[in-house]
Amino acid sequence: MGSRFNTAFSLVASVVGHSNRRKAKRRINRLNEQNRNVRSLGNTSPDQIIPCSYQMGNISISGGSEAIRNELIVQNCKQSVSVGVPTIILHEGNHLLEQILQTTFSGHRYLRIINASKPFYDPLFRLNDMEIGHFISDSSQKDHKVDSGGALYVKALSTLLRLRGITPYTRMFAHCPHGSINNMIVNMENSGMLNADRADRLRNEVSLGSRAQAEVEYFFQQLELESPILAWKSNLSRCTSISECILRNGIMSIDVVSCGRRNQLALISTEIEHCARAGRPFRVIIDAVSFSGSEKLIQALKNSSNPVAWTIASPDINRMLGNAQGELATWLALSHRAVLFSHGIKTCELLSAELGEYEHIDIVESRAGANNIGRIGYHYGTNSSFSTSAKRKRIIQPEEIGSLGNNGFIMMDNDTATISKGTLV
User: Fold this and answer.
1) Can you tell me the distance from the alpha carbon of 164 to that of 187, in angstroms, rounded to the nearest whole number?
2) Where does the pLDDT of residue 5 fall: very low under 50, low under 70, confident under 90, or very high at 90 and above?
3) Which of 60, 287, 334, 383 is 20 to 30 A distant from 218 in Cα terms?
4) Bridge partners of residue 388, in order along the sequence
């Protein structure tokens, strides 16, 4: 009788002990989840990630399929339209995106699609002579720099073209008779198109920029080779620019083919910089595999004092940034929202590290005894116990990013300091 009582008592004590431990474990697990603070969004639509009700700051989109990135880019354009912000899209041959933009915004007051079959881009056509000179100086690369003297040379050349009844445009500068510009001034002076004072002033500007003449010629020749999107003489009536798109509160898509075309991208980046100085807000969306090495574009986007909001979209954000140490951390820190889909092992590891850590409580269970038959009956491990220890643990593990489904995503919101997880539908 006594033995049966002791066995029953031991069983009850063991059950109570196990129950208390389970409750304690559940409380600790709940506390860990609270500290981890990952919100579950479930099935989520693009307009929930990028809502049209307000203008969002910088956005990073990485991983996933081209189709899913296109959805988010178009939703970003819808958001900008709803709040009246002009949008410039630079992409590397994403023809499907062009088609979707054309269909979605066919009724928009100003939508321009620029590519090799629609070569209507010309940032110089509506500038004055001085502005053209400075624009080319700003656009030139460090290894072929057009200095202030070169800017004067370009200004003089632009002035001479206008005096001959020709409105300067970008392609024309690649075919100008640079070697006979002084003869042109003499002929125009002799014909009465220039008075002596103005002719002397133009000769002086050409002389000051003579050392940069080779760099000016190189810039325009390389630009023409790289850039099939530049307007031709025959379609100047339809030419446009980023500044005109912003003025008209429009949407412009430019197929740069590759961000590796340095002179073409430098020209576009310079216009973005100049428009930013004007102070009117606009958004630049870049859909690219890589823009590392595009210093002028990177500088224009990183400048926190300008009114430009940006969106970068790529199959792999780390590769887009050239796998450069520290760049991923910088761009994610500059992002107000980052939407991250499944990636390869290396990028998953880097993203996991950037998503942060939390205080995790580990449970260590130990058993001092074992189930056995003793003098007073059967014992049920009543000496079992557990202890806890705290350590830093990543909020999102690399394998959690790598195992995301086709449309599964992790979202980091720097404005609210939250991380969410969901599936895009």
Assistant:
1) 11
2) very low
3) 287
4) 363
Given phi > 0 = left and psi -120 to 50 = alpha, else beta, which region is 313?
beta
* Token code pair at residue 33: 């989840």
Report which DSSP code applies to 362: E
What is the per-residue pLDDT for 275? Answer: 95
DSSP per-residue string spanning 48-67: HHS-TTS----EEEESS-HH
Q: Distances from the Cα of 180 to the Cαs of 75, 177, 289, in angstroms? A: 52, 6, 43
For 81, the enclosing helix (H) or strand (E) is: helix 66-82
Report which residue type is found at 263.
Answer: N
Decide: 95 and 234 in contact? Cβ < 8 Å. Answer: no
Which tokens in the block code for residue 303? Answer: 């400048």
* 3-class state of residue 384 by DSSP: strand
Which residue from 396, 375, 120, 82 is spatially nearest to 238, judged by alpha carbons? 120
Specify burial of residue 121 (Cβ count, 10 A radius: 0-12, 13-18, 19+). Answer: buried
Give, as one character, the DSSP assignment of residue 308.
Answer: E
Whole-angstrom CA distances from 37 to 74, 329, 396, 419, 420 are 30, 21, 10, 7, 8
Please name the residue that has the structure tokens 């431990």. Answer: 21
Three-state DSSP state, 241? coil
- Answering whether pTM is above 0.85, one says yes
**Dihedral angle sign, alpha carbons of residues 321, 324, 328, 329:** negative
Burial track 159-188 (b if 16+ CB lie within 10 A, e otherwise)? bbbeeeeeebbbbbbbebebeebeebbeeb
User: Are 67 and 388 spatial neighbours (Cβ–Cβ below 8 Å)?
Assistant: no
Q: What are the residue ranges of helices labelled H in 140-231?
A: 148-163, 170-173, 181-190, 196-208, 213-226
Q: What are phi and psi of 40, to 5 degrees?
A: -100, 120
Residue 96 CB neighbour total at 10 angstroms: 12
Place of tokens 């991380």: 419
Token pair belonging to 148: 């202030």
**Which region, left, alpha or beta, applies to residue 216 given φ > 0 means left and ψ of -120 to 50 means alpha?**
alpha
At 122-171, the pLDDT tens digits run 999 999 999 999 999 999 999 999 999 999 999 999 999 999 999 999 99
- Report CA 287 to chain centroid distance, whole Å: 7
